[in-house]
Amino acid sequence: MTATGPLLRLDRVVRRFGGLVAVNDVSFEITPGEVKGLIGPNGAGKSTTFDLITGVRPPTSGEIRFRGEDVTHRPAHTRSPMGMARTFQIVRLFRGLSVLENVQLGLHPKFPDGLWPSLLRYGALRRQEQRSRERAMELLAFVGLADRAAHAIEELTLGQLRLVDIARALAAEPSLLMLDEPAAGLNDAETRNLGEMLALLKKRGVTMLLVEHDIDFIMNACDSIVVMDRGAKIADGTPAEVSRNPEVIAAYFGRRAAHAAA
Ligand SMILES: Nc1ncnc2c1ncn2[C@@H]1O[C@H](COP(=O)(O)OP(=O)(O)OP(=O)(O)O)[C@@H](O)[C@H]1O
To answer: Does any ligand 1 atom lie closer than 6 A to the CB of residue 227?
Structure first.
């Protein structure tokens, strides 16, 4: 990455599933410090795009660069040591471990998404206990959950679990934090709390990509927003720009309004 270059760059990315083009020639960039949103109606291709960026699956064609490096075909587990971290729509935390221990798992720079490798690495983490506990406590304090550190993960609300998942992702000190529907299932107070947390992260210079269904949330949280519809990018601009874009209104807001009226 050059001093002024994008942190992440998608260039003419395509993903087909058989005859279906789920992501159709999509290009966009995320600059360092930017909070980027990715929205669109159901089936627009958001999750697939997210999967291509995180390396869950490769694109059919096109290129993805992270910090200037071609990562198009790099497997998911090699992207986290490069500085990508993600949270999950269905939070994947470890039952039977405390809140603190779950955040400690994120301190391992090669922490993968799978269960067994994580548990194996958990043994190694225990040996650097003190430093890792302190760092995990700092992260929990940052997300406002220091007083829950010793609690079992099962005792937390969904909103709290999302914050723990963010703390876990931040533990790797990522240069790009990707959030998969962070507001899904949260009540109004929890959504506000999450919004405040993301604003704080933004102030600290954390670059983020948010895939989200909650339009109000994304409009408030993001510097710029990519809008997809039926696999294609139909807009990319500030929240004000995309919300007055006629194509976006027709494809997304119009459809939502029609749905609400039905
Ligand atoms: N593994 C897959 N195999 C076949 N088709 C898929 C697969 N994953 C996604 N698709 C299809 O690709 C298209 C885009 O799906 P995707 O999940 O990326 O959209 P989305 O914008 O995330 O939708 P939603 O908001 O409903 O989650 C849809 O038509 C979907 O059915």
So the answer is: no
